[in-house]
Amino acid sequence: MLHKVLLLLLFLLVATPVFATDGRVELVERLGEKIPLQLNFVDSTGVNVSLEELVDRPTLIVPVFYDCRNVCNMMLGTLSAVLPEVKMEPGEAYNVITFSFDPLETPAMAAHSKQTFLTAMQAPFPKQAWRFLTGTQENILQLTDAAGYYFKKEGDEFLHPITAFIVTKDGTIVRYLPGQRFSAIDMSMALFEASEGRIGKPIRQALQFCFSYDPEGRRYVFNLMRVSGTVILLTLGSFLLFLILSGRKKKK
């Protein structure tokens, strides 16, 4: 009896997926670094595909899990509304990849999600230009680690950053788009930068200054104290400079 219990425990330990190596929930931007294009995933039709096949032009990559009841669906819903406003030809100038970081999710779930958000788009969009993928735990973690995207599972839910990132056709990361809401202008600029191989460091630094990641809310929040403090200091500095210059003029 004891022998059977030990075997069962061993099986559970082996079979239980490990979703993060150190349990942290964090986004570490790896601008200028490359994602491993040799990795294989399964698309929504059940076909095995490599990232090298899909990333043959500037590509927006969106990590989610399809059974998410909260921010993932909101992010994909916003994306479906914004993509028709991007002034570039999908499938020609750029591609979109959504992949699940839950290795237990299936191609059928990916197909359901793809159908849902392409229908919500209410605009013509090539099906091959927006791929929905699932993969093995090993390949998922290789991709998320390369992107600096760290997450963990708690119960039936995941704690994870809310972001998408854009890569060039050789897999170089050029921009992160944090938050669950996208703007067509930011996305168009980022894709254009990717087509030229330029890395969006100034935008990244501005976003890091203005926004902080809230792991409990699983979203980026506007850092009001930091931004308002900077505005007040700049205003006071400008006012003092004005007083000094006006005082000099009066003396003259």
UniProtKB/TrEMBL annotation:
What are the UniProt keywords, alphabetically?
Answer: Copper, Disulfide bond, Membrane, Metal-binding, Signal, Transmembrane, Transmembrane helix
Give all cystine bridges in this chain. 68-72
Look up the signal peptide feature and give its range: 1-20
Recorded GO MF terms: metal ion binding
Residue ranges crossing the lipid bilayer per the database entry: 220-245
Pfam families linked: SCO1-SenC
Q: Which residues bind Cu cation?
A: 68, 72, 160
Q: Which InterPro entries match?
A: SCO1/SenC, Thioredoxin-like_sf
Q: Per its UniProt record, what SUPFAM superfamilies does this chain match? A: Thioredoxin-like (SSF52833)
**PANTHER family the UniProt entry points to:** ELECTRON TRANSPORT PROTIN SCO1/SENC FAMILY MEMBER (PTHR12151), THIOREDOXIN DOMAIN-CONTAINING PROTEIN (PTHR12151:SF8)
Describe the family membership recorded for this protein in Swiss-Prot or TrEMBL: Belongs to the SCO1/2 family.
Q: What is this protein called?
A: Protein SCO1/2
